[in-house]
Structure formats: C-alpha cells, structure tokens
Design brief:
Elements (H helix, E strand, L loop, with lengths): L11 E3 L4 H10 L4 E6 L2 E7 H5 L21 E2 L4 H10 L4 E6 L2 E6 H8 L10 H4 L5 E2 L5 H11 L3 E5 L5 E6 H9 L8 E2 L2 E2 L16 E4 L4 H11 L4 E5 L2 E6 L1 H12 L3 E5 L6 H19 L4 E14 L2 E12 L2 E9 L2 H28 L2
Parallel strand pairs: 1-2, 4-5, 7-8, 12-13, 15-16
Antiparallel strand pairs: 2-3, 5-6, 8-9, 10-11, 13-14, 16-17, 17-18
Helix pairs in contact: 1-7, 3-9, 4-9, 10-11
Length: 367
C-alpha cells in the first residue's frame, strides 16, 4: 500500500491567527481540522471539536495559540497500520504527515480508500458496524447540541423530525458558525427582542450532506458511497425511521483488526515496580481476551496519572479507552492502589461492553 496515494494538501492557518479568522477559513473549506504553521515550522493542529469545548466569548480577539493541539506530524515512512492506529486512537478526522520538508494530511476517507482491499467486507452489512445514533429534534437549541457533542464525544447528531426521519446532521464544524456569529438565520428577532445564537434551533445550522442507507445494505456498497461522495455520515434507516449511524471510523476499525490485531498501549506506568507492572499487564490481558470473545477488538489504551500524595501514599487516576467493532468504551477509576484502580477501570469497561452486547442482541431479535 502506497501512503503517498492518499496524501492531501492541508488547510494551513498561521499560529498568530485569531479564532474568528481560523474558523472562517475552516468553514469556507469545509475542514474540521487545520494545520497550524508558525512561519515555516509546523506548530500543531486546530480542530473544530477542540474549539467547541472552549468557552470563547470574543473570537475576533482570541488567539488560537493556546487552543492548538501540540502534536508532532507522523513520518511518511510510518507503516499504514501505524498511521491508521494513530488516527483512530486520537479520534481525529485527519492526521498531519511529514514527507521530506512538506506537510500533508491523511484523512479517514483517504484511509478507507487505501485499506479497501484489506477489509473483510464480504457478507457484512451496514447493520454489522452501525452505532446507535445520538439524535436531536430540529427545534432544540444550538446550546443543547453543543453540550451533547462536547460532553458525550460523538462526531455528530442526527436531526430527526416528529416522524423519526432524518432531517439533517449537526456536528462541531457546523456549530462553530454560531461561535463566530457568521451564520445568517431566518429567525432573527421575535417581538422586538434579539435572539441569541445559542437559543436558535439546530435546524438553522443543519447540514443536509449525508447519505441514507438501509441496515441490510452490503458494507462494500456503503463504503463506495462514502468514498465516492467524500461523505462522513451514512444515516441508517428502517421503514423511514433512523436506526443507526455509520462514519468512516466505524468501517476503519475492521482494518485495524485485519492489519494489526488487538493493540494495547499503557502510559504513565514506567516508574512503577516490576511486580505491579506484571499484575497490571495480567489484568489487561485477561480482560482483553475475555472481551475479544464477545466482539471484535481493535485497540486498548490506558493512561495512569499520580495526582495526590499523602506522606508516602500516592493516589492514582486511571483512564481507559477500548476501541471495538461495535463502538468505543471509556472508563476511569481512582484508588490509592494502582492494581485496584486498574481492576476497577477494567470492570467498568467490561460492564459497558456487556451492556452494549445485550442491547445489540435485543435490537436484532426485535420486539
């Protein structure tokens, strides 16, 4: 597989730009992420999802520098599998890649095209990879949509009408129109009182750029629609009502399993003694093997942080993320003992996986 075939020209913004200028450029080019350059030097990545999490009140005077994610671009000589895993684990829509002295980006759509031949799609349908979507009504407020996307961590919300039919998509990029106040809306004032952007209905910012498909649609056909139209969202319907959502990430997870198998990354454990490390490794290995029998697993990431000390005692904060073929699962736990915190976070992950598996079984059986 030749990575150069999916290199894309990045959307570049200057590190000295204001939020207003950067977001306007992202909106104009329909890009969820921008490559930030400080002169000729790569500075980092600015994403719509990260901007949405901040409480920006004056975008025209706020610098983007404190909001930029300071990451290093990947080397273009990295394996396609490593680039795929990095983009999935960091849950970004595109990834900067350095090729010689130039910076390019690799997007999830580009990776779908690259890994198409590696994916085990025969016999699979859209229903096998779709996620249960987070939905919102067309008249609910922009602030409600922003809170859902920010707090739940979903890529976008499906806007459904009173009959349960998809009426649009709202995501972080669309919501940034309200942040910079550039979107013109039809409902401007009522009774002489100016309406705040946050109070406006989500339908005023909705995107109609999505494709409708059925649960039984062959996954290969769905992938063709997504890559052929550069569409990030496939809305799944049954008898005219929304039942699921498929994004490039949902299909790419199949490639992780095909190329790399289950990968485990644990950070923040380097200073612990070998005995504790061995227990943590055993607990993770046991849980991964157990959950792998329930659903296809792609990646397990755990981060350990020491955040409170009392004498010789140290309290640990453990955060974990499991990427699977049926969705992502998150958990955290806090204990004075690292092994207890590890067991706690793994138990929470297992509980969520079992809950999702049971819901899927009930859903497939039907009423």
């Amino acid at each position: 597989m030749e990575m150069e075939n999916v290199f894309e020209k990045p959307l570049i913004v200057n590190a000295d730009s204001t939020v207003s200028k950067a977001v306007s450029k992202m909106l104009k080019n329909h890009r969820h992420e921008a490559t930030v350059m400080d002169g000729d030097e790569f500075y980092g990545v600015l994403s719509a999802a990260d901007l949405l999490k901040t409480g920006i009140t004056n975008p025209e005077k706020t610098s983007i520098k404190p909001l930029v994610k300071r990451i290093s671009p990947m080397d273009s000589r990295s394996s396609p599998g490593d680039i795929l895993n990095t983009i999935l684990v960091n849950d970004c829509r595109s990834l900067p890649v350095k090729h010689g002295n130039r910076i390019f980006v690799v997007s999830k759509i580009g990776l779908l095209k690259l890994f198409k031949a590696e994916l085990e799609l025969k016999g699979r349908t859209v229903g096998d990879v779709m996620n249960f979507p987070f939905c919102i009504g067309p008249d609910e407020s922009i602030s409600t949509a922003r809170a859902l996307i920010r707090d739940v961590g979903v890529p976008g919300l499906v806007i459904i009408d009173e009959k349960g039919k998809a009426d649009g998509i709202i995501d972080a990029l669309r919501l940034l129109r309200a942040v910079i106040g550039k979107e013109s809306v039809k409902r401007g004032e009522e009774s002489g009182e100016k309406i705040r952007f946050d109070d406006l209905p989500v339908k005023s910012l909705a995107s109609k750029t999505f494709i409708r498909t059925g649960e039984g649609t062959p996954l290969l056909d769905a992938l063709g629609k997504m890559t052929g139209n550069n569409t990030l969202y496939l809305v799944v319907e049954r008898e005219g009502k929304v039942t699921g959502l498929v994004t490039p990430k949902d299909i790419l997870k199949l490639a992780v399993g095909a190329v790399e198998g289950v990968r485990v990354t644990v950070s923040g454990i380097q200073e612990e003694d070998n005995f504790v490390k061995s227990i943590v490794d055993e607990e993770i290995e046991h849980t991964v093997k157990k959950l792998g029998k329930i659903m296809p697993l792609s990646y397990f990431v755990m981060h350990i942080r020491k955040y409170h000390k009392t004498g010789r005692r140290v309290k640990y904060s453990v955060h974990a993320r499991l990427i699977t073929g049926k969705g992502d699962f998150f958990a955290e736990d806090h204990e004075w003992d690292l092994t207890k915190a590890t067991k706690g976070v793994l138990a929470k992950i297992e509980k969520e996986v079992l809950k999702k598996d049971e819901k899927t079984k009930v859903y497939r059986r039907g009423p």
